[in-house]
Structures are given as C-alpha cells and as structure tokens.
Amino acid sequence: MKVEKQVTSGQLDFTFTRRAVFVGGVQAAVGLTVAARMSYIAVADNEKYKLLAESNRVNLTIIPPRRGWFVDRYGKPIATNRADFRVDIIPDRLVQKEETVRTLAELLTLSNDDVDRIHRELKNAQGFQPVQVADGLDYERFAAVSVRLPDLPGVSPRQGYSRFYPSGAAVGHLIGYVGTVSAEEYQKNKNPLLITPGFKVGKDGLEKTLEDRLQGEPGAKRTEVTAGGKIVRDLATRPDTPGKPVQLTIDIDLHNYAARRLGLESGSVVVFDCLTGDILTMASMPCYDPNSFSDGIGRVEWKMLNSDDHIPMLNKALQGLYPPGSTLKPVAGLAMLRHGVDPEETVICNGGYRLGNRVFKCLGRHGAVNMRTAIMKSCNTYFYAMGHRIGYDNIAPVGRELGLGQEFPLPFPSQRYGTVPDSAWKMRKYDQKWTDSDTLNAVIGQGYIIASPFQLAVMAARISSGLNVQPEILLQKRTAPKALSFPTEHLDVVRDGMNLVVNGAGTAVRSRLQLENITMAGKTGTAQVRRIAGAQRGQSGAWKYRDHGLFVCFAPVSAPRYAASVVIEHGMGGARAAAPIAKDVLTFLYDRAQAMASLEALEAGWGGNIEQRMAAKYAMYQGQPALPPPLDPTA
Amino acid sequence: MNGIVPAPIAALPWRVIFILMALVGFGATVLYSAAGGHLEPWAGKHVLRFIVLLGMAIAMSRMPLEFWKSITFPLYLVLVLLLVVVELMGFVGGGSQRWINLGFITLQPSELMKPVMVLAAAWFFDRLPPNRIFGIDAIWPLVLLLVLPSALVIIQPDFDAAIAYAFGLGVVGFMAGLPLIYFIGAGAGVAVLAPLVYFFGMKPYQQDRVLIFLNPENDPLGTGYHITQSKIAIGSGGIFGKGFGNGTQSHLDYLPEGHTDFVFATMAEEWGIVGGFFILFLYFLLMRWGLRVAMRSRTRYGQLVAAGLTCTIFFYIMINLLMVVGLAPVAGIPLPFVSHGGSSMLTMMLCVGIIMSIERHPGAKRGQFQ
Predict the structure, then answer these.
(1) Are B230 and B265 in contact (CB under 8 A)?
(2) Is B368 a residue whose pLDDT tops 80?
(3) Closest CA to B122 of B311, B292, B367, B289
(4) Residue A411 CA: distances (Å) to CA of A96, A625, B5
(5) How far apart are CA B234 and CA B230, in angstroms?
(6) pLDDT single digits (tens) A248-267
(7) Which residues of A touch B291 (CB under 8 A)?
(8) Residue A552: beta bridge partners?
(9) Which residues 491-520 of A are in CB contact (within 8 Å) with B?
C-alpha cells in the first residue's frame, strides 16, 4: 500500500476540533449577517417599509364630489343631485365579460339597448375607466347585485349621487349634460378622481364651461382591507366638498313653458329682461334629455335623435343662423332716421320697387306708406326705396350696434355670430363691389345677412329699452347699461311701428295679448330658405324647403321690460308660426293660468308634453310600443 | 444536583430543554397572534407536538451510542426503499407525492433522510481507517451514499432536499478531516455548474425562485411577492415591533405562509429586531450546545454525528432566515422549533434526541478499551 502520509486518529481528533471551531465561526458569521441585514431593513429602511405596510393595509376610496347645483334667478333648481344606487364595471378587474354582463342584465332588468351600450363602452374603454351599468337603482335591485359580488369580479356597486335635471329635455341645450371622463381627458391629467365610478364631468353647455366651479373637492374613505380585498373596518372618512351652486338669470318656469310651447316645431325662444340684459329664457327644441344622456347614451336613443330632421343636437338659439327677414326692418328704420329720412315721408307702394330693369317685389300693394305704416304692414317697397337712398353701408353699423354679428362673452361652448354685410365685407369675402340690389336684399333681411335667434332677441331688447344691454346668463350685480346712440324720438318711431304690427292693423294682430293694460309690440319676419321658384314661394311643399318664421317683440309697450325673439324653422311665416308662441310666452309672464290653458289645449293635440312625446317616440323606435324607456328618470 | 428534584429528572439535559422550550414557547406566541389570538389552528398543536416529540427525544437519549451506530445502515436502506415506494406511489397515483400516509402519522422519507444521511456519513468515517482519509477510498462510498437518495428526491422533484443531503454529508466529511482541497474544489465546481444546473436542471418554478431572489422588486405582485411582503413585515416592525397582535401584514394576509416558512417575518413585525435578536440568541445557544456535545464526545462516531446534526439544524435556520430577510431565494424550508409544521419538528427533534443521547453517552476515550 502506498502511503504518502501517515494519519492517526489523534491527528483526526485534532483536525475535528479545529474544524468544529471553524464551523462554529461560520455559524456565528451567518447569524451576524442575518442580524445586520435585519437591522438594516428595520432601522434604516423602517420609514419606507412602514409606508409600504400602510399602503398595503389602507385602501383609499375616493368619494366623488357632488356637483354644484344650477338654480334659476328665484332659486328654483335647474340641475340637482339625486342620491342613488349605481352599478359600474371596472374593465380591468372583469374576468368573464359576457357572463357578468348577462348576469347584471338579469339582476337589474336592463333593456337590450342598455346591454348593447355597455358592450360598446366596454370595448372602447381603457381598463381603468369605469363603465356605467346603471344608476338611479332602487334598493332591491342594488342589493341583488351586492350579494352576488363574490361571483362578479370587476363589478362595483356604489351609493352615490347622480345628476338630475327636473326640466328634462327643456334645459338640454342650455345646461348641457354630464358624462364619464373620456380616455383622452384622463391621459391628459392622471387624476384618480377622474376614473372613480360615479364621477362625471360636464360634456356640453354650461355643465361643460363652468366645470371648475361645479366640480367641488372629492372626499376620501379609508378602509382597512385584507390582501383578498375584504374590508375589515372603516378608518377615518373625509367627506366631499360639493361644488358651488351657480345661479342663472334664467326664469326656469318661463323657460320650461317656452320649451313646451314650441311643441312639435323645430325652433327657439329667447327672452331677455330688456333693462338688464339678463337672459330669462333660452329654449331650443327639440332637444335630447340630459337625464338619460348623463346615464350614457343608448343606441336606440342615439338613432332616434340622429334620424330626426329637426336636429335635436343643435342649440338653435345660439348656433342656428337664419336670414332675419323683415324682423330687421326696425333696424333699417333707425338707420334711415339717423340719416335724415323724415318718418312722415311717404313712399307709394304699387307692389314693388324698380331698380334698373329689375322689379323687387313687395308682398302687397300698400299705397302711400310712411315709416310707421311700413313697419306695421312690413312693406318692402318703402324699405327698398329708403334703403336705396341711404345705402347699406349706413345701415350695417346700426345693425351691429343693436347686437347683430356680435359674439357675446357668455360661458357657452359655442356661439355663431352670423354676418352683417357691407361693401368692405363683400370686397374682402368675394372680391366684388357692393351693388344696389345687395342693399335692397339686405334691408329686408335677406341675402348675405344672417343672424342667430339670440342676436335677434338682443336686438329687440336694445330697441325696446334704448339701452346698450349686454346679455348675461350668470346672475350677478352689474353696472347699469348705458344708453344707445339713438335719440328717443327715433326709437319711439320704430317702437310705434312695432306696436302697430300687433295692436294696429299690422301683420301680427292675431297675436295681440289678451291681457288688461299690457300690450306687446313686435315685428314679424319670414325668411326664404331657397330662391323663390315660381309661385310656390316657400309656403308649401317639403318641410325643409319651407320659409322660416321669425318674430321679435317686447312688452309692455308703455314701459318695455321684456324682449324676445321666436324663430320657427320652416314655420312658413312669422305671423303664422312665431308670433302666437311669443304671445303665449309673454302672457305666461303676466297670467300663468291663461298661458297654461292655451298650452294644455295645444299639447292635447300634439300627443302630450315633451316627456310623454319623447317616451312614445322612444318606444316606437324600440319596437315595443307599450314600454316606456326603463332608465328614463323623467318618464 | 440538589436533593429536592428526583435524580432521573435532574439528570435530564435541562440546558437544551430550556433553550427549546423558549424557542417553541416564543414560536407558539407568534402563532397564537397569527391566528388572530387563538390557540387554534396552530399554536396549540405546535406546543402539543413539541411535548410529545420531546418525550420521544428524551427516550432516544436513553439509547446507547452503539445502538445508533448499529441501526444506521439498516435505517439508511429502509429510507432509500421508502423513497422508491413513494416514487412508485406517485407514479401510480399520478403526480408527485412526497409522503406515505400511515393513518396516524404521515411519513416523509425525504425529510427523515436528512439526519440519517449524517448518521450514515459518520458511520462510514467511523469505519474508515484514519490513514485512508486522503485516498480515493474515502470518496467513492460517500458519493454512493449521496447519489442514490439524491437521485430519488430530485425526480420527485425536491431539489432542496438533495442540497440538504449534500450539505449534511459535506459537513460530516469536513469534520472528519477530508482534505480541504476537496471543499475548495467543490466550491469552484458549484460556481461553474450552477449556471448549467439553472438552465438545464431546473423546472421553471425553480428558475423563477432564483430570478426573483436576484431581483424581487421586478415582480412585486407575482412570484416576488413573498420576499417583498416579508421585507415589508420586518422593515415596518422597526426596533420594538408593532406590538403583540398588531401585525397588519400577517393579520390581513399580505404576508403569505406567515405561520410556516415566513413565521420569522410575522414575529419581527410584532416584536421588532428585539424579538429577532432573541431568536438568534437562542439559536446561538442551541448551536453552542450541539458543538460542545460534539467536542466533548470521545468517540469518532459521536463527534461526527453531533456536529453533523447540529449543522443540519443550522442548515434549516440559515436557509430560512436568509430567505426571510431577502438574502437567499425562496425555498420551502421552515424555521426550526418556531414554524408550524409536524414534519420539520419531527426531523429537528430526531436530531436533538440523538445529540442528547451523545451528550449522555460521551463514550470511552479512544484506545482505552480497544
């Protein structure tokens, strides 16, 4: 045996002792390492890990703030918050999409339209964005979902508030509506509040433009939760700070009345306090119902609105532009007076005015007319002749002073301000010289000139008060408006003419107010939609080719307080379509009972009030005539 | 000893029993809190098991050293056989199985093999003539002893157990006086082989554990969750802890396995590093006791067994604590005498029982009676 090294058991004993000491040393070293590491974690990094443990333990739930109310000038609510139960889906946490939506539809008795909308929104939503399933739920249905929660991951039932507009569709264009934040808005500002279920922002109208005032401060609910998400107990809760209420200059009763009175027509009513410029009414119909829009817009509902040729999505008061027609004659009258026309001077109307070899027609043969009778009879010949004498470049500035072509600093998302043409404008726009026939067209409110119903109401307010009133929608103390540049004698001539329109032998005598001591003055207008073709003249045929009916007015004549404009699209004539509405709306200000009686008689023929007609229409579109829309809170 | 205490009781190895009672008692306190202030389901059982197993250990300590020496090899063979049986049962039953249910107790042969591997190595070195320690004769039987059970547990697959066997065997070989060059060589070999094993020898979940260990923050909610939550529990506990029963990480279930593998984190959250140092100190006393028994033993078998089993206990402690503080990858190894769990307690008490037996029978000085 080859032995290189002799080893005895004594040597091994010695080796053992030495190595045992070494092993003990290694063990001690490991122990010290653990001790050092532990100290480092627990002392040096203590703050960091304490914070992490807290964020594990505490679940912060954001309480969406209640939106500020909209109230009218008398404090009546226009938009409020209703306590309700709601159910949302957080797409990120959804496990079985089809299954969950089907279960929810069953538990909440959702309509097909809603299920369709939920699927569509789920497809478009980014994972963190809540998709509303339903709100305004009663406790039973809410509880039915709550108890099934363990089987429905991604479903979030909540007690919260939802926006409520007591007036429904009547205030849609004025106030707008609210909705969940879009993905782009969230990407811009990653505020977790934005994706809290139940939180909504203004999407249109004042809801949108006054968002900052209305939003308020969110509250927070802190709960202790287990890793599995089970709530152990509630910790401190900070309540939300509701947004500030906004008081509008609107008289909501008058506004609602005007909206209802528009009936089946497509049109708008704007009423001003002509001494202050406060907007009392700005109704535009037909309109969507902001209540159901704020719940998320269903497919059927959308189709119903979009297929309507009355364009319910357009605020016609501010965004509709129309040739003002004869409603502009008082403006022309003021310009003529300023440029030396004697109001008593007469023009012989033989049914038209010859300019060169072209005859501009009048609607009648009025004989000898002065300015007052010309306004009363709406005689084109008089205005052709006098307009031709002074020229349109002298008329346009008067129109602008009275509010035409003007954009007002109001918190509405969009206003269209139309055109007040003159020679410089035409040169700029078409590189053409202004012609005399342009003047004749413009002086009777046709041709290039277009204006919004809102501007026409401003015009009426300024003529009636003689004050340079500025329109205002937010009720606040303001400095009194200054007088316009027109002498009172001039204004009186025009007002006289407008008085005769209603109370003399004018175009709107049938719309005289049936009130003691209160009279209305006005001016009718009929605007061509297309060039006169043959004898048809826009008085018959397809709805969309019929003439627009316009009416501007103020009351009482003795001491003007209210001014209004009514524009009825394709109403065929101001006297026929617009003036009766103006009459009822102004009557409402003085004698509600009389006005309501008149409205109720009309509504009986129209098939109910706005909500009833919309519900019926919705049911028709859904092909289920018996059922009203289940989620329409106003129905 | 004083006369009041009866001699058989006074003769018990009270030093180690006190250490163990302190560890188990503190463990039970932590488990009591982890169960939300209830003895059920962990703390009560934990203490009960300890009492029963302590009885078993004391009974074992009565056995002479020669008895352990004589049953070592048969025991080893029986366990290898049981490993095969477990493997076959798993094969028949479909899926991996690690235990045999005997009705009253579940036997986990791979677990029992850990101390038995130490016994077998010591038994071998005891028989090996001293001057053969540098030769090849000292190596191949060891390799044989290791490979057979290791192969069986690796196909279970239980890589952790195989590493524990190698560790036990290595420690005994080291103490027995194998040339240092072997260990240095093995260390170098591991450094070379580790990447190979990682890429070709490990299942994905094992690879995951290693990856997460290297960077737990990468995946804090996935597989790195355990380590992250454990560090949060220890770190948020601070110096004095959140107080008994106030640990949020464990009570709200953020810390997984808070009563078994991560019991140290559960403890540290409520007791702080003060509690941690207390446990480390108890382990220090336990290790010191074990190594002293080894050094005082006068037989080579006793020396090697006592030192090897002490190191087996140490292996558990080390792997568990390094894992819990985030210095080692997650491995399913409990903290001795503190974690809830029968299997590991049984193994630990077997180790303690045999060391007690060696303490009680240090044996005759070598050469006197030979």
Answers:
(1) yes
(2) no
(3) B311
(4) 44, 40, 96
(5) 6
(6) 999 999 999 999 999 999 99
(7) 20, 23-24
(8) A523, A565
(9) none
Contact A505, A378 (CB under 8 A): no
Domain assignments of chain A as residue spans, ordered by start: 59-247, 252-611
CB atoms within 10 A of CB B157: 15
DSSP three-state, residue B177: coil
Q: How far is CA B312 from the centre of its chain?
A: 5
Q: Is A59 helix (H, G, I), strand (E, B) or coil?
A: strand
What are the domain boundaries of chain B?
1-62+203-302+311-363, 77-200
Residue B47's pLDDT band (cuts 50, 70, 90): very high
Average pLDDT, chain B: 87
Query: What is the pTM for the complete model shown?
Result: 0.69
| Per-position b or e across A220-259, b if 16+ CB within 10 A of its CB | ebebbbbeeeeeeeeeeeeebebbebbbbbbbbbbbbbbb
Give the A window 2-61 contacts with B, CB below 8 Å: 3-9, 11-13, 15-17, 19-20, 23-24, 27-28, 30-31, 33-35, 37-39, 41-43, 45-46, 48-50, 52-53, 56-57
> Which CATH number applies to A59-247?
3.90.1310.10
Tell me which chain A residues have a C-beta less than 8 angstroms from the C-beta of B239: 42-43
Instruction: Please check the confidence at residue A455 and state whether its pLDDT lies above 50.
Output: yes
State phi, psi for A273 to the nearest 5 degrees. -80, 110
Distances (CA, A) of B338 to B26, B81, B274, B321: 7, 31, 16, 12
For the domain A252-611, what is the CATH superfamily, name and number?
A: DD-peptidase/beta-lactamase superfamily (3.40.710.10)
Q: What is the CA radius of gyration of chain A?
A: 36
